[in-house]
Design a protein that fits this description.
Layout (H helix, E strand, L loop, with lengths): L20 H12 L21 H11 L5 E4 L6 H8 L3 E6 L2 H10 L5 H17 L32 H14 L5 H19 L8 H32 L9 E4 L19 E4 L13 E3 L3 E3 L1 H6 L7 H4 L10 H17 L5 E7 L3 H14 L2 E3 L14 E4 L17 E9 L4
Helix pairs in contact: 1-2, 2-3, 5-7, 5-8, 6-7, 7-8, 11-12
């Protein structure tokens, strides 16, 4: 472990207490192999594809950083890394090309007041008491710009079985605009998003309007309690570690490519830890769509949250997975990690979890890309699995993705890799 940590004597993340090598290894492995349901704090806001286990994130942050250190996630998704880092007294920043991901990361790391939370709770109760499906119209409401209500954002929701859910969502979206603050509107949209995902995504049988309203009340309670817990945890961390700055992560809507030239994150550099999970090579993951009644895709998540969609699946996954040799994927990955290397220094540790559709050739190519980007892999034999390659592999229970509904795919095995700048070796 000493090859990639800052030194065991100080006990990274342990406030100066000495921790034995075996105890550190045990804690890290426990986090890596955690397969519990993702929950706690604000992690239950949304089922984002390929989410990190919070236990894994916490174990890595605990091992490689101290309070006050900077943690960066260049492919932050819904912000699991940022949530855990900020509740552990670390400064955090993240980037993502998906406006949906950035919306979620901001919502999950926001610090609304108790007044905001109470207002959203009252709004939900009022909406559920007064919503009338017969009263709704489908006139543009102008809340997010011209042409936003184009039918494309309601694709595959205009069916007999989904009409009631769609009408409820229309009515709720219009009512969200009555909330006076950004925090309140963001939380309300999160509640709608969570319930709509429950009702529509990969469901063969669409629930009734009554079932939707009942679930919405349960989701509202979970989300509002989660944000209370998050605010309390970050406040406790600030007091415990005597931090003078706000533990409010920075969430940027942008590619990691060229991040070294972005002045907005200059104060966050260099990071002590880069902890991330990039898009998986050759693996079909729908980061930006739900599948309604089979494989009919809908961009409804963007419509519900008032965010704008990108440019198709390949926009979110580094390129078309059918491209020969995944040339676009590896070119994009090379450019992204080259930029990341420019904001790192000799003390930065890069930890990533990734899976491959065909590891036999994709993993070696991926490692070549990392080397070309300025990173060198560091093996930790004491925590490696029995795979024989000196790396940590984990199996993800019941992973099927959308590509194969019949059973586990090759991407059900993830690998955790550690890298440092080549110049720091």
């Amino acid at each position: 472990m000493d090859q990639v940590t800052r030194g065991r004597a100080a006990g990274p993340g342990r406030e100066g207490g000495k921790v034995s090598e075996s105890a550190a290894v045990s804690a890290l492995l426990k986090g890596i192999y955690d397969d519990q349901k993702v929950c706690g704090l604000t992690h239950g806001f949304y089922r984002y594809p390929a989410r990190f286990s919070p236990a894994f994130v916490r174990a890595v942050i605990e091992e490689f950083t101290r309070p006050g250190d900077i943690v960066f996630d260049p492919f932050m998704g819904s912000g699991t890394t940022l949530v855990e880092a900020s509740t552990m007294g670390r400064r955090a920043a993240g980037t993502d090309v998906s406006s949906l991901a950035v919306f979620l990361a901001k919502a999950k790391t926001s610090r609304p007041s108790q007044t905001d939370i109470s207002a959203v709770n009252d709004w939900i109760e009022q909406f559920l008491r007064n919503c009338n499906l017969r009263a709704i119209t489908f006139e543009p409401n102008g809340d997010v710009g011209p042409k936003w209500n184009e039918p494309t954002y309601e694709r595959n929701l205009r069916t007999r079985s989904t009409w009631a859910i769609r009408k409820l969502l229309h009515l709720a979206r219009n009512q969200v605009l009555l909330l006076p603050t950004v925090h309140q509107r963001r939380l309300a949209r999160c509640i709608l998003l969570k319930t709509a995902q429950w009702a529509l995504d990969c469901r063969k049988v669409i629930p009734t309007a009554r079932q939707f309203r009942e679930q919405m009340r349960r989701d509202a309670w979970e989300i509002l309690q989660g944000i209370r817990d998050y605010v309390a945890a970050t406040s406790t961390a600030a007091i415990r570690y005597r931090l003078k700055w706000q533990l409010r992560p920075m969430c940027l809507l942008r590619s990691a490519v060229g991040i070294e030239e972005d002045p907005r994150i200059a104060k966050f550099l260099p990071p002590r830890l880069v902890l991330t999970s990039p898009p998986y090579p050759g693996v079909h993951v729908l980061y930006h769509r739900w599948q309604v009644q089979g494989r009919r895709e809908t961009p409804a998540p963007f419509w519900i949250t008032g965010t704008k969609d990108g440019c198709g699946a390949s926009y979110y996954t580094f390129g078309d997975r059918h491209r020969p040799g995944l040339s676009t994927y590896y070119r994009t990955a090379r450019n992204a990690f080259r930029s990341i290397s420019q904001i790192a220094d000799s003390q930065t540790v890069l930890v990533q979890m990734i899976a491959f559709s065909e590891p036999s050739w994709q993993l070696p190519q991926y490692l070549r890309v990392m080397e070309e980007s300025g990173f060198v892999e560091t093996r930790i034999p004491s925590i490696a699995t029995t795979s024989g390659d000196g790396r940590i592999w984990r199996s993800v229970p019941n992973r099927k993705w959308y590509a194969d509904q019949r059973g586990p795919t090759s991407s059900s095995k993830e690998v955790v890799m550690f890298h440092r700048l080549a110049s720091s070796k």
